[in-house]
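Design a sequence for this backbone.
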């Protein structure tokens, strides 16, 4: 997955406070926090490493987090939203 390009699948969603409810596969709902939602919205056409680098560039306090932490978080979130049908891996 690390070097696979991601394709965002557009789904219906609704913001509920600080969370997002997204209609996933099979009329199931998945809840995303703001960071996971941001990853979903910005993953199209990127690999997990490119997405992590993009997010890391946006962080103001870089001394509080490493790129490796961001990469690990991105990998975990992308795996979860792939299973929910929100992202597709393409070659």
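Sequence:
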């Amino acid at each position: 997955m690390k070097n696979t390009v991601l394709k965002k699948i557009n789904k219906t969603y609704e913001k509920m406070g600080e969370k997002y409810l997204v209609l996933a596969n099979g009329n199931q709902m998945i809840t995303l926090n703001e960071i996971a939602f941001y990853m979903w919205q910005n993953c199209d056409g990127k690999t997990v490493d490119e997405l992590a680098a993009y997010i890391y560039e946006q962080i103001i306090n870089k001394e509080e987090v490493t790129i490796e932490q961001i990469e690990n978080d991105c990998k975990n979130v992308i795996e979860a939203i792939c299973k929910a049908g929100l992202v597709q891996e393409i070659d």
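The longest strand covers residues 19-23.
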